[in-house]
Amino acid sequence: MAEHAWILAAVPAIAFLALAALGRRLPRQGDFLAVLAAASGFGLFFAVLASFLGRGEGAWPVLNAIEWTAIGDFRLNMGIAVDQITIVMLAVVTTVAFMVNVFSVGYMKGEPRYWWYFAVLQLFVASMLLLVLADNLLLLYVAWELVGLSSFLLIGHYWERRSAVEAAKKAFITTRVGDVGLLIGIILLWKATGTFNILDIIHAVEAGEVGGTGLFVSVMFIFLGAMGKSAQLPFHVWLPDAMEGPTPVSALIHAATMVVAGVYLVARLLPVFEAAGDALLVVTAVGLITALFSGVVAFAQTDIKKVLAYSTVSQLGFMFVALGAGVVSAGMFHLFTHAFFKALLFLGAGSVILGAHHRQEVGQLGGLWRRMPVTAAAFLVGSLALAGLFPLAGFWSKDEILHAVEGHRGALVFALISLASIMTAFYTTRLFILTFLGKPRDAEAGHARETGASMTGPLVFLAVLSVFAGFVVYGGVGEALGFPGGFGEFVYLHHPETFHIDWGLAGVSTALFVIGVFGAGWLYRGGRLDRAAALTAWQPKLYEMTRRKFYFDDLYQFLIDRVVLGFSYVVSWFDRFAVNDTGVDGSATLTGYAGFLLKHLQTGRVPNYALAIAAGVAALILVALAAGG
Amino acid sequence: MTFGEAFFGMSWLDAIIRIVIVVLLMTVVVVYLTYGERKVIARFQMRLGPTRTGPAGLLQGVADALKLLCKEDVRPRNADRWVFEFAPYLTFIPVFLVLAALPFARDWGVRNLALGMFFVFAVLGLNIVGVLMAGLGSGNKYALLGGVRAAAQMISYEIPLVVALLAVAMLAGTLDLNAIAAMQESRPFVLVQPLAFVIFLTAVLSELHRAPFDIPVAESEIVGGYFVEYSGIRWSMFQLAEYAALWAFSIFGAVVFLGGWQFPFGDDWGWWWQLILTLVKSLLLILLIFWVRATLPRLRMDQLMSFCWKALIEVSFALLLVNGLFLYFGWSEIILAVVNWAGAAAFLGAIYLRAIRKPAVENLVGAYKHAGVSPP
Amino acid sequence: MVPLENYLVLSAILFALGVYGVLSRRNAVLVLMSVELMLNAVSLNFVAFAAHLDPDRATGIVFAVFVIAVAAAEVGLALAIVIRLFRNRSSANVDEAATLRW
Amino acid sequence: MITEVLWWIVAAGVVGASAGVVLSRSVVHAAIFLILSLAGVGAIYLFLTVEFIALVQFLIYGGAVTVLILLALMLTRMGASGRPEPLTGAQAPFGALVAAALMATLIGVAVATAWPGDLGGSPTAISIERIGAALFQNYGAPFIIMAALLLVAFVGAIVIARQEDGD
Fold it and tell me: How many whole angstroms separate alpha carbon B112 and alpha carbon B176?
């Protein structure tokens, strides 16, 4: 089954085609098809997993490729490669996709273009699985763009709203900048190694066939693509805006799967990054800056989804930091656990938004604890997991990251990442308090109702995963599940690493958690805003700066308005005046006048033309003879 | 021997002698062909035909020829002089050239050419030029109409003629007429290729303007066609050319389809026997042509053209294709013969059924509709 | 023993006559005839070259066959055009068909 | 010896007939001169010992092309006025000039060039098998394309010359 893992991608692809073609005419607009496809994908994943594990470690990675085209000596193969990283990604994607599809049945009920929403959702799942399975960079790039397309379509699902359209465009264009880098990087790597196949490229790099500045440059271009997709600074601007899409989409695409494609890409090519000089340092730096920056911005956000969006950006930064430290297992482990609790948080936010009648500003919410108990409990679990409470999933993965950074990057990075951890705990607590504790600050929030089973079901399921998913880090747990050991012994770069709990580090981690939680708890005690308001009044400029996301959007706006448009104005003036008026129109006018003068040569009588032709031929022959001797 | 060698060789005297023999033979044959035709047609029509001149009217042809030679040679005032006067010669030259290439006995003709059959096609094509010149040069609208009809008819029917003969040449594997005749020692090609023979005969009737394809010379329509203005010796040149062409085609058909001097008794009885065999076979074909004239009514121009372009050409190309398949796969000649007989039977049967079918009354218009009869 | 140059000169004369006919004749059919003369001159050249210089490959012969076939196609088409022209304008003169002008 | 004499006679006939084509004042005469000229060229092919092309020349030109031309002459005989029109246009002198220039150039080239591999002045006979092989093997694809061209040309001719309603 593992060598036929492409079926995983084929199932949602077929569902997409069926829904796109027939969805509108099917009963219930075909949502059962989508859920069926997602469920079978979830089930098939276990078949793949069992087959993969059954082969034993010596048979990994499982390869299956066909020759796609041959141009001269160059053979282009397309196929799939299933290794440990792929398995982790498959687990994340199929699970979250399943949950989100189920959740969407309730959440999207009665929304416009219900069938189209599910169709594109299936397209996304198919492309994401293809991206994960691809054994070569070209196929990966195709899937990469398809994923971007689905994201674009889903963000702009409510295209009647101008903001949604703008957000979709922003996401598409911003990621495109990175994608161009990725394409250049792929081409450069192909030029250097002569293949698109990822494993071949890694082998070539490890064998030292390529290296030096050229490799560094191409790796940096590839990392540009990863940064764009994973919303790393300075490409992060699209992700918060992408919250214009339906909330389950945010859970699936913009929290758990698509945005981690960058992380996945770097993890997949980590040997190449290692060989490419200081590439990993760049990865660490970008991840660190992003983690800190978005942690700070998350403090001041008032939209419940934007807080989560910045939190996602920040956590992606964590993952890059871990990868930058060269520890693939830490990064992938955080990706794995984060997918569950961040999907949980987003779905919880969706539940809140639906229950509270589309109020999503924290200033309007509050006191939902009693009205939406299941959602609140699930959200609490997710928040604590994100903040890193022992022994929830987030604790273990964050612990791994801290461990990796301590081991490979030194004290400064460790201190900064600890700071980012405190921020995580802080804004998570703030969000939870403002949303669920205290008293409702809005009449609609006061009338909030718990949502139906199709939504609370996935919440509970994901909450359970958020509690227990972290334990796979233990070797015993992994072996019990059929893996060769814990997470570190399953996903590794050079040699498997058995997990030993480091009580000192766990203490530090817990201390960070406590500082963050109690800081927020003190500031927003009981859901009241007076201390926060006082803080804002004390430093209004700083607060404004944070609320405005450090003016990144304004900076981009300025760049586009003044620099790009100004330059394009000059270019357009040149085009109009020099190219068009002088060059194009000028020559046309000249030709027109010449034609007016010369048209009298045209008699319409064929013999005249024939005479001219014959005379011309005679003259040409004579000239040729004279010239040629 | 190639045509070039024949043309440049030193055996001029030999050639001239042979030409004289053939021309004399031709003159005699033509004179008695006219007599024969009148007799045969008369018998078909329960008449006697010429009886007065000589025993059983045998000298009638000679008398006619003498009369024609003595008649005044009239040229219309608005005729184009040179065109008018040269047209009869130009109709005659190709026929003569054809006769020069036909084998009358084993290896005996004026010249034996490697590309004999091709030469016959090529030269026969020129035949039409004289007809057209006569039509154009007479300054007469009937002559012009006859010329146009003849031209359209002849270039149309040349295609099935050539294609059907090529189908036979494919089987023979040569264009040498002598070799083709020699090949028919055991069986004449008509037994193997009856369909080709039927097509050949039909096309020849048309090429010679014989009934039922005598549209260019139809007296009742265009008072004799392209030679309406001719008289005397020039008219007799046309007649001579026409009957000579009839004879030449018959010998050609006899050689290609009936084995010429070869079948049924072979060539071991001497050259005179071969000569008699060839002549008898050609006369048999001529008799067949007379018979057709006596039996079938004349076609309309559009019927003539659509029969050629919509039936004959298709069938002849199908024949070419079938022969090619048999040759390519090396199938037995017996099967080929059976297929061909079936094709010939189907072709003739289709023509017969079409001829006897009732007119489609529902498609008639006007008075014919009420009367329930088809227009004439 | 006729040398190659004789054929070439004959062909050149035929070609020039054809050119003159094409350029000077008014009747479309006559123009066509002159074109035929030119084509004949060309294939005469081909055949002469083939027979004198390249008898093994017979390329010139093949070209002559092609020229003749193309000429046949051209005549058929051109005469159809002439007849159509005559039917439309009651004249086969090429210089009267001068509508295609500014 | 006799070959050369014959050649010169035929060549003179060809040139004379060709001149008749372009100079005669009657369309019909021009057509008949054309036939003579084409037949003469066919005879010239016999001097080159390629019977095949000579026969093709007779068959296609003599039998088909000139017949078509004569047919077209018959169909386009009468002008609108019914009176004979001048057959030579006003630019005839210029045409003569250009034609003379071309002829001089071509003759000059033909005479001045030392033709490579000239086989001593006498033509070599080319067998019909050789021509057939060249036509169907070496030039098979052009041959098929030519067949398609002929088909298309004749379909086009029928479409163009067809009598339509209202004509």
Answer: 8
Residue in chain C closest to D155 (alpha carbons) equals C77
Maximum mean pLDDT: which of A108-112, B339-343, B365-369? B339-343
CA distance C98 to chain D (A): 14
Q: Is the dihedral of CA B11, B12, B16, B22 positive or negative?
A: positive
CA distances D24 to C23, D94, D103, Å, are: 15, 18, 20
Give CA–CA dist A504/A507, Å, rounded: 5
Would you list the DSSP string of A327-375? -HHHHHHHHHHHHHHHHHHHHHHHHHHHHTTS--BGGG----TTTSHHH
Does the CB of D68 have a partner CB in chain C at under 8 Å?
yes
Please write the tens of the pLDDT for every residue from A176-205: 888 999 999 999 998 888 888 898 898 888
Residues sharing a CB contact under 8 Å with residue A203, sequence separation 6 or more, in sequence order: none
User: Which residue segments constitute the domains of chain C, with CATH numbers given?
Assistant: 4-99 (1.10.287.3510)
For chain D, positions 80-139, list CB contacts with chain A under 8 A. 89, 91, 94-95, 98-99, 101-102, 105, 109
A604 close to C (CB below 8 A) = yes
Instruction: Quote ipTM for the complex.
Output: 0.70
Instruction: Please say whether the structural domain D1-75 has been given the CATH code 1.10.3720.10.
Output: no
Mutual angle of helices A114-133 and A6-22, in 10-degree steps: 160
The domain limits of chain D are: 1-75, 128-167
pLDDT digits (tens, 9 = 90+) for B66-101: 888 888 877 788 777 788 888 888 888 888 888 888
d(CA D43, CA B4): 10
Of B215, B198, B197, nearest to B207 (Cα)? B215
Question: What is the number of residues in chain A?
Answer: 629
For the ranges A227-231, A399-403, B138-142, B310-314, the lowest mean pLDDT is seen at B138-142
Nearest to B125 among D46, D49, D58 (CB): D58
Compute the half-sphere exposure of residue A313: CA atoms within 13 Å on the CB side of its CA: 32
Contact residues on chain D for A607, CB-CB shorter than 8 A: 89, 91, 95
Identify the CA nearest to A61 among candidates A265, A197, A259: A197
